[in-house]
Structures are given as C-alpha cells and as structure tokens.
Amino acid sequence: MSKTLQILAIIGSAQSNSSNESIVAALAGMLQPHKLTIFQDLKSLPHFDPEQSVHNPPAEVQQLRAQIEQADGIIICSPEYIFSIPSGLKNVFEWCVATTVFADKPTGIITASASGQKAHEELQLILKTLMARFTADTTLLIAGVKGKVNETGDITDAATKDALQTLSRKFLHLLT
C-alpha cells in the first residue's frame, strides 16, 4: 500500500466562497486518497517585516512555514487582482523568501480569474525564485473562471474539469 501524501493548498483569494475555493475543492476530490489541507486565511498573517523574518518570525508565520515544510507537495490557487497576485498571497511568499521551505517542493500552480495571464506569469516567477519544483504540466491558467463554476461551486465546464484531472495526475507524478 502506498503512502498517503500530505498536500497543502494555499488559496490566494481574499473572498470567501470564491471560485478558487471551488477549484481547490474539486481538485481535493481528484487527489484522493491523499490528504489535502487548505490554508485560506491569508488575513491571519501580519504584514511582512524583514527585520522579523529570519530571527523573530511571528507564531502565525512559523506555523505556516512548518505546514509548507511538512507537506509532500503544495498547490497554489489564486485569482488575479489588477494584473498581479493578491497582496495576501504575496505576503505569504515574502515571509518565506528568507527560508528554504519551498526549495525543491513539488508544486502545482493554478491561476483562476477573469484573465489571469499576468498573475500566472508572476506566480511562476516567484515560485521559481523560491526554488519550488513545478513543470508546465503542473501549471494551469483558468481564464473566465466565473463562467466555469456555478453558484453552488460546481465546475460546469468540461474542458476545465479535464484540465484539472490532467494537472492532478501530473502533480502526483511530480511527487513520486
């Protein structure tokens, strides 16, 4: 019997019941029997302070870093806000840049937004800088996401479901 993998999903949206939450919920089902834990409380982290980052990080930051470090793999799912990633998600990365918690960590990158191209490029650049391990097959841009997820959070677009299935398979392959 194979090991149950521990996967941490970080949702970049500041909105509750977002399309990004729906995407991660669908992905959780596709990744079973592995355990997917969702971190979506970006507001719990204090603003980045470089003076605290290395020697005196706040408890919330230490806990998040530990979750990232202990996970077998990471999924980032984010919208695009003003042609960029949300500030709360950027704050996560800033708190982690002085560490190696993302180094060689198998990572899936999903940008789900109206357009999302600029944020998708930015996420890949940031995660490359943090030395996360991902491939073109473990990244996915879902443009026009609001038309692909209904009001109850179900993915209604067959191509999006297929793309998520492919990403989940490629992501699991990256973990092995």
Q: Could you please describe the fold and organization of this structure?
A:
The protein has a 5-stranded parallel sheet with strand order 2-1-3-4-5, with helices on both faces. It has helices spanning 19-30, 50-53, 59-70, 87-96, 117-129, 158-175; strands at 6-11, 35-39, 73-78, 107-113, 139-143. It has 176 residues and is an alpha/beta fold. α1 packs across α6 (158-175). It has 6 helices and 5 strands, in the order βαβααβαβαβα.
Q: If you compute it from the alpha carbons, what radius of gyration comes out, rounded to the nearest whole angstrom?
A: 15 Å
What's the total helix number?
Answer: 6
Instruction: Quote the distance from N terminus to C terminus.
Output: 14 Å
Strand content: 15-25%
Describe the biggest sheet?
5 strands, parallel
Secondary-structure element series: EHEHHEHEHEH
Uncertain residue segments: none
Given the helix and strand composition, which structural class is it? Answer: alpha/beta
Number of strands: 5
List keywords for this structure.
5-stranded parallel sheet, 39% helix, alpha/beta, 6 helices, 176 residues, 16% strand
